[in-house]
Amino acid sequence: MTTLEQIAEAIASGKSKDARALTQRALDEGVPPGDIVDRALVPAMASVGDKFKRNEIFVPEMLIAARAMKESMILLEPRLIAAGITPKFTAVIGTVQGDLHDIGKNLVATMWKGANFRVIDLGTNVPPAKFVAAIQEHRPHLVGLSALLTTTMPAIGEVVRAIRAAALPVKIMVGGAPISQQFCDEIGADGYAQDAGSAVDKAQLLVGAA
Ligand code: B1M
């Protein structure tokens, strides 16, 4: 097995220490950091997302895989920045106003990072104006809106309306336990994903990377 395959294996099975040590080994072997992301981290997180979608693994396994990926990124990120390598696509994500749930939103953000998106996470309880300001500032290709409460579902619609009113050229993805494709269609968002694995496929489709 190559070092890159071993990194992918360590991340997919959530072995943080191994992921970090193997990433260091790959760097010592002269593998460019961008190749480590593209050929180890991205496929590892894609396989984790696929298994999650098929109910072969669950939230805890996904969280530890995400943690292992972050260990690897600690070594890679400064080198990627120094080499002027930035992800091709940018996404802004947040949980809408009135809603403090962030576990699912954080998973989606991590999976997007694993798919090599630059992700600006606005956190929870984010008002529409803050989404609009962040889109104006960062010019993302995609904005993700998460809600876990039936009472905060209307806030998703408010953000969509605010973004459309400001005529911002960004794709809007919505998700969270009470959200459905039908709701997405009703409020005029561009895409819906049921879980963090599907959120990667849908993000890539919406930005034209699929
Ligand atoms: Co709250 N809570 N909670 N809660 N909470 C729920 C959601 C609830 C279903 C529990 C219940 O009654 N059975 C219920 C909502 C009922 C409803 O509206 N229909 C509820 C309630 C009522 C409340 C409070 C109002 C309780 C109270 O104070 N009386 C309160 C509200 C606070 C607020 O937000 N203003 C509240 C508070 C909390 C805690 C703070 C204690 C805590 C949140 C901690 C945190 O997030 N940091 C909490 C928790 C943990 C839950 C449950 C138990 C778990 C939610 C979770 O993290 N799931 C939840 C009950 C349950 O689901 N069993 C519950 C795991 C997570 C990985 O899944 O978030 O669905 P999920 O994310 C998935 C997908 O939905 C999707 O991908 C993720 C990964 O697959 N997804 C996206 C999510 N966002 C996406 C965005 C996308 C695409 C996909 O694109 C952008």
Helix and strand run: HHHHEHEHEHEHEH
The number of helices is 9
Write the CATH architecture name of the largest domain. 3-Layer(aba) Sandwich
| Structural class by sheet pairing and helices | alpha/beta
Estimated share of beta-strand residues = 5-15%
CATH topology of the largest domain: the name is Rossmann fold
> Radius of gyration over alpha carbons?
17 Å
The hetero molecules present are: CO-5-methoxybenzimidazolylcobamide
Q: How many angstroms does the end-to-end distance come to? A: 28 Å
Could you give a short account of the major beta sheet? 5 strands, parallel
- Tell me the CATH superfamily of the largest domain: Cobalamin-binding domain
Q: How many beta strands in the DSSP annotation?
A: 5
- Helical percent range? 55-70%
Which sequence of strands runs across the widest sheet?
2-1-3-4-5
Shape: globular
CATH top level label of the largest domain: Alpha Beta
On the 0 to 100 scale, the average pLDDT is: 95
What is the gist of this entry?
The chain has 210 residues and is α/β, with parallel strands linked by helices.
What labels would you give this structure?
single chain, 210 residues, alpha/beta, Methyltransferase, Methionine Synthase (B12-binding Domains), Chain A, domain 1, Rossmann fold, 2 domains, 5-stranded parallel beta sheet, 5 strands, 59% helix, 11% strand, globular, binds CO-5-methoxybenzimidazolylcobamide
